[in-house]
Amino acid sequence: MANGARIDEFGDPMPQTTMLGLAMWTHRREKKVSMRSAAKEAGVSAPTWARVEHGKAPDVYNFFRICGWLGIRTPTLHLLDLEPAKQ
Questions:
Q1: Which architecture, in CATH terms, is 19-72?
Q2: ∠ at Cα 53 (57, 61), nearest 5°?
Q3: What's the pTM value of the predicted model, to 2 decimals?
Q4: Contacts with 77 (C-beta within 8 Å, 6 or more apart), sequence order
Q5: What is the pLDDT of residue 78?
Q6: What tens digit of pLDDT does each residue of 28-55 get?
């Protein structure tokens, strides 16, 4: 690739990414599937998959689909340490 990105065995660029993207990439490699195949399995578009795997934040809908594909339980609000805004 022109930008110097490393390429994996499926011809996809290796991620420079977030923890979610790294989890996606690692699980995809373990399953030996391409980005396109993983995206289809997860129910997201291939461009969305590529963006998220390379560090962009997904929308909530796609986040839940990707987490489902990864087998990750998604966070729930009662687990968040939220305090009411001070007035």
A1: Orthogonal Bundle (1.10)
A2: 45
A3: 0.67
A4: none
A5: 44
A6: 999 999 999 999 999 999 999 999 998 8
